From TrEMBL:
Originating organism: Scleropages formosus
UniProt enzyme class: transferase
Family statement drawn from the similarity comment of this UniProt entry: Belongs to the adenylate kinase family. AK1 subfamily.
Gene: AK1
Protein name in the entry: Adenylate kinase isoenzyme 1
GO BP, sorted A to Z: ADP biosynthetic process; AMP metabolic process; ATP metabolic process; nucleoside triphosphate biosynthetic process
Functional description taken from the UniProt entry: Catalyzes the reversible transfer of the terminal phosphate group between ATP and AMP. Also displays broad nucleoside diphosphate kinase activity. Plays an important role in cellular energy homeostasis and in adenine nucleotide metabolism. Also catalyzes at a very low rate the synthesis of thiamine triphosphate (ThTP) from thiamine diphosphate (ThDP) and ADP.
Annotated keywords: ATP-binding, Cytoplasm, Kinase, Nucleotide-binding, Transferase
Length: 207
């Protein structure tokens, strides 16, 4: 386990319930395969998968006023406010803290400030899985997924916006955590199983 997972230091603003949690950030472009790999990690290692996009879509599906506001942002491929998504993740983590073997935080941080705020309010990650695919690959995967996903953001124009935002806002997150030595870059161009064999090596390096 990396140092950030078990420091035992717990400033009062963090939740006591989460102070010993193993936290893995799963970062990559839209359609790179983050969710697909997280499902396989859950199957083999039993971690808790929390996708920021899934949490937001659940709020949209609830029909709440907040969900309507979020839907308008997500349809354009833009980022929702930091406090909104961070509070949702923290609540979901606390709800699972007593039974979780570790958390896969998929789709967060999307920008460096999200990482900084997460660490202040929740804790430090011990690993960042960087799921790296080419823009053409991500585009093709999302266009195909859009045939059946029902996701309002799997459309040509919104995919273009999401890719642009990924390169501008999220790629700097990788550099930020590279400085800490916790980034494992995964070549996501191969089959799901080929990608997973790299992911599994990275997870096992923690144990
Ligand atoms: N290695 C792979 N080879 C081919 N197709 C893949 C691979 N990994 C995932 N896919 C497919 O690509 C699409 C996008 O994958 P997935 O939903 O896991 O991506 P994501 O990174 O979670 O995307 P988003 O950021 O939009 O949530 C899905 O239809 C999935 O089945
Ligand atoms: N971490 C996030 N910050 C802001 N907005 C987010 C975050 N995670 C998801 N979102 C919004 C914006 C994205 O385009 C959609 C879909 O997310 P995805 O990870 O592709 O399922 O939700
Ligand atoms: Mg996903």
């Amino acid at each position: 386990m990396g140092a950030g997972c078990s420091s035992g230091v717990c400033p009062s603003r963090k939740s006591d319930k989460l102070k010993n949690s193993k936290i893995i950030f799963v970062v990559g472009g839209p359609g790179s395969g983050k969710g697909t790999q997280c499902e396989k990690i859950v199957e083999r290692y039993g971690f808790t998968h929390l996708s920021s996009g899934d949490l937001l879509r659940a709020e949209v599906s609830s029909g709440s006023e907040r969900g309507k506001q979020l839907a308008a942002i997500m349809e354009k491929g833009e980022l929702v406010p930091l406090d909104t998504i961070l509070n949702m993740i923290k609540e979901a983590m606390i709800a699972k803290a007593s039974t979780s073997k570790g958390f896969l935080i998929d789709g967060y941080p999307r920008e460096v400030r999200q990482g900084e705020e997460f660490e202040k309010k929740i804790g430090a990650p011990c690993l960042l899985l960087y799921i790296d695919a080419k823009a053409e690959t991500m585009l093709m995967r999302l266009i195909k997924r859009g045939e059946t996903s029902g996701r309002s953001d799997d459309t040509a124009q919104t995919i273009k916006n999401r890719l642009e935002l990924y390169y501008k806002a999220t790629e700097p997150v990788i550099a930020y955590y590279q400085g800490r030595g916790i980034v494992r870059k995964i070549n996501a161009e191969g089959s799901v199983d080929e990608v997973f064999s790299q992911v599994a090596n990275a997870i096992e390096s923690l144990q």
